[in-house]
Every structure is written in structure tokens, then in C-alpha cells.
């Protein structure tokens, strides 16, 4: 297959107006064919380079943005709508690559369009970009493509991603306030220790006398900040470099993910989120006709937690040996009894997909309620924490001033 090149084109639409643009294609003939499918009469086609000067795209390692889940949700919904309206797959991919606001996604869709044009199946073309498209999406596209219900699969993918985007939005909105308050409190404490406490220290030394214990502790902590701040800065930079490269490794996930589920307040919320994601993804995979073993494997990968993934590996191994899903699932402590019992009823009645959908809806509501309660509880706690920390430092600084009259005498 020829490597895609960048071409600048000029075409005339049905109204007689000239339309200019750029497109990636293996050859000029492929560009001409694509322009005709877009309803344009080719006027000129010229190969262009990657750009120079201000037109050259700059990619900085670590800062290049990838494809967001929200972009995938919009793309899936638009793709399902256009295919359902009778547009050809090639024209649909071409329109999506032209109108999407995400530049990384536009480039990928253009490449996918070129691959499909050469005869590669849609799922295989998407699978070439596994770092941008989740396994869940690729498997459901493959199932829809094979079974002749690609539009339905894309609708399910869009609905799944839209719910996931809403879920993430709720979690972010719940965490934004406490994170901001925590950062403000840390900045305030460090600023007071570095800039304000030394001023009071010199004043205390001139007055003489013995400082109260809280004030002495504050002074010692201020002196230590000369060494602590540079160390924290170096550790912060090192961690910001190390974390993106290692956060998805088996060793890190195996250590951190179980701890996340055991956190005092957030552990239950994270467990509900993981169960809701598992149920929703598993239901969509079964509805798309994906085999149970493959569905369990993919759902485990997309669960977002090593504990869930490892548990589903054990369940898949039991299913491979001829057991039901609910039996081995009940032996995994991370899944609540209600979930396993409803799955068992769904297997016995032949309505597993329906039961999983009900479980996902129930836990989506649970997550929403828990998030609202968490937000309502955290706000006053964070305000109280900020008041105690900053207020305590101010009181410690002003304690010696109460004895100024005694020291002056």
C-alpha cells in the first residue's frame, strides 16, 4: 500500500464556486476520486510538503494532545447518523475527517479512510490506531461489520462513550473544589513560611525572651523550608516526568489500584464507578454479538482498575472451563452480591444483556448520588481545614505579641 501524502486541491462545487483544501491520499488519482465523492470537480491537485516556517506543525513530546473520549463519542454518533442516512462509508469517513475539531482525530480518520479505500475492513483500519481507539470500540465495530448492523454498533458505542463522558464530568466537578482549596492552602502555608515568618522571627529576636512552643515550631519549620522547597520542586518535576510513563504499567497499577478501592470515603465511590463501567461495557459487548470470553477480556481492559481486570481474568478462565459467569464472579470480593445475583438471574432467563443494563443504570444513579453527597460533605470540611491551618499559623505568629509589654519591661 502506498504511503499517504499531503495534497493541496482546488475544486469546483455544484454552485460553480471554487473550494480549496488539503487532504492526505496515496496518489493524485485517489485525491481526484475523493473530490468526486465530495461533489467537487477537480481543478488542480498538487503535492505539498509537511509545511515550513509558521505553517509547520510542532509536536512537543509530553505536550501533544491525543484523542479525547468526548471526540470519540461525537464521532461515533455522527458516523452512525450518516451511515443510517444512506451515505457510503468512504464519504462518511471523509466528512468526519474534514469537520472534526480534533486535529489528531482528523489525521487518524483520514488514514482510516485511505485504508478502507484500499479494501481493508473498517475494524482493521481502526485497529491500526489502537492507541487512540479503545478495544471496546474496535471489537463492537468488528461485530457490527460482520453481522451487518454497523449503524447499531456505532449507536451503542456513542451511547456508551456519552455516558462515560458524563460520569467523568461528574467526578471532575466533585473533585475540582477540594483540589483548588487544597492547592490554595498549600500555597498559602508555603508563602507564609518563606516570606512572613522570617519577618516575625527577626522581630522576636530583637525583643528577646522565650517564644511559645507553637511559635518555635513554626520558626523551625520556616528555617527548614530553605531546604524543603528545592527538594519538593525537584521531586515534583521528577514525578511529573516519571508518572506519565509508568502509571499504566502492571507494577504500578497492581500496587495503587487496590489502595484506591480501600480509601475511607472515595473507595466506595470508585468501586461503584468500576461496577457501573463493567456492567455497561459488558452489556454493549453482548448486544453487539461479541463472544463472552472476548467480551470479558475487553471489559477487563477497559475497566480502569487492575482489581477488576484481574478478577475478570479469573472469571474468563472459569467460563472457558464450562462454568457460568455469575458463579466465579460471586467469588470475586470486588463485585457486590446484588450484581452477581442479577447476572445469575439474567443467565438463567436468557436476559443477561437486560440485567447488565439495569445494573449499569442503578450504579450510575448511585454514583451520581454519592458524588453529590461527597461534594456537599467535602466543601465545609475543606473550608474548616483551610481555616485551621492558616488560622493556626496566624495565632502562632501573634502569640508572642501578647507578651510584648512584659518583654519591654
Structural write-up:
By secondary structure, the protein is mainly α. It contains 16 helices and 3 strands. Strands 2-1-3 form a 3-stranded antiparallel beta sheet. The chain is flat and about 90 Å long. About 4% of the residues have low confidence.
Topology of this protein?
Blueprint: E1 5-12, E2 18-25, H1 28-37, E3 41-47, H2 69-84, H3 89-99, H4 103-117, H5 122-127, H6 135-147, H7 150-207, H8 213-246, H9 250-261, H10 266-287, H11 292-301, H12 306-320, H13 326-330, H14 337-349, H15 352-398, H16 404-408
Antiparallel strand pairs: 1-2, 1-3
How many β strands by DSSP?
3
Q: Roughly how much helix do the residues carry, as a percent range?
A: over 70%
Spans of at least 5 consecutive residues whose pLDDT stays below 50 are: 50-64
Major sheet summary line: 3 strands, antiparallel
Quick one: overall form?
A: flat
Descriptive labels:
single chain; 409 residues; mainly alpha; 3 strands
Quick synopsis:
The chain is built from 16 helices and 3 strands. With 409 residues, the protein is mainly α.
Amino acid at each position: 500500500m502506498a504511503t499517504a501524502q499531503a495534497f493541496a486541491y482546488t475544486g469546483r462545487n455544484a454552485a460553480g464556486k471554487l473550494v480549496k483544501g488539503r487532504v492526505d491520499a496515496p496518489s493524485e488519482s485517489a485525491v481526484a476520486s475523493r473530490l468526486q465523492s465530495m461533489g467537487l470537480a477537480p481543478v488542480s491537485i498538487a503535492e505539498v510538503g509537511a509545511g515550513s516556517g509558521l505553517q509547520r506543525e510542532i509536536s512537543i513530546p509530553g505536550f501533544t494532545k491525543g484523542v479525547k473520549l468526548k471526540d470519540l463519542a461525537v464521532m461515533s454518533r455522527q458516523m452512525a447518523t450518516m451511515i443510517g442516512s444512506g451515505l457510503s462509508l468512504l464519504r462518511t469517513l471523509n466528512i468526519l475527517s474534514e469537520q472534526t475539531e480534533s486535529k489528531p482525530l482528523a489525521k487518524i480518520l483520514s488514514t482510516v479512510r485511505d485504508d478502507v479505500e484500499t479494501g481493508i475492513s473498517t475494524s482493521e483500519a481502526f485497529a491500526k490506531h489502537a492507541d487512540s481507539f479503545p478495544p471496546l470500540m474496535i471489537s463492537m465495530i468488528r461485530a457490527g461489520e460482520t453481522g451487518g448492523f454497523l449503524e447499531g454498533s456505532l449507536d451503542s458505542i456513542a451511547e456508551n462513550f456519552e455516558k462515560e463522558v458524563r460520569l467523568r464530568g461528574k467526578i471532575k466537578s466533585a473533585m475540582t473544589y477540594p483540589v483548588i482549596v487544597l492547592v490554595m492552602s498549600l500555597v498559602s502555608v508555603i508563602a507564609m513560611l518563606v516570606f512572613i515568618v522570617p519577618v516575625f522571627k527577626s522581630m522576636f529576636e530583637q525583643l528577646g525572651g522565650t517564644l511559645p512552643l507553637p511559635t518555635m515550631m513554626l520558626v523551625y519549620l520556616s528555617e527548614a523550608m530553605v531546604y524543603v522547597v528545592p527538594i519538593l520542586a525537584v521531586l515534583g518535576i521528577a514525578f511529573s516526568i516519571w508518572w506519565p510513563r509508568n502509571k499504566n504499567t502492571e507494577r504500578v497499577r497492581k500496587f495503587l489500584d487496590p489502595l484506591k478501592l480501600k480509601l475511607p470515603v472515595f473507595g466506595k465511590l470508585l468501586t461503584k464507578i468500576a461496577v457501573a463501567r463493567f456492567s455497561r461495557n459488558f452489556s454493549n459487548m453482548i448486544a453487539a454479538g461479541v463472544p463472552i470470553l472476548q467480551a470479558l477480556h475487553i471489559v477487563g481492559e477497559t475497566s480502569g482498575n487492575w482489581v477488576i481486570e484481574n478478577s475478570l481474568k479469573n472469571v474468563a478462565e472459569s467460563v472457558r472451563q464450562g462454568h457460568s459467569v455469575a458463579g466465579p464472579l460471586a467469588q470475586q470480593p470486588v463485585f457486590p452480591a446484588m450484581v452477581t445475583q442479577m447476572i445469575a438471574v439474567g443467565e438463567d432467563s436468557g436476559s443477561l444483556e437486560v440485567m447488565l443494563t439495569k445494573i449499569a443504570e442503578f450504579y450510575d444513579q448511585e454514583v451520581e448520588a454519592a458524588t453529590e453527597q461527597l461534594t456537599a460533605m467535602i466543601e465545609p470540611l475543606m473550608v474548616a481545614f483551610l481555616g485551621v491551618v492558616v488560622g493556626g499559623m496566624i495565632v502562632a505568629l501573634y502569640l508572642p505579641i501578647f507578651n510584648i509589654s512584659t518583654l519591654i519591661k
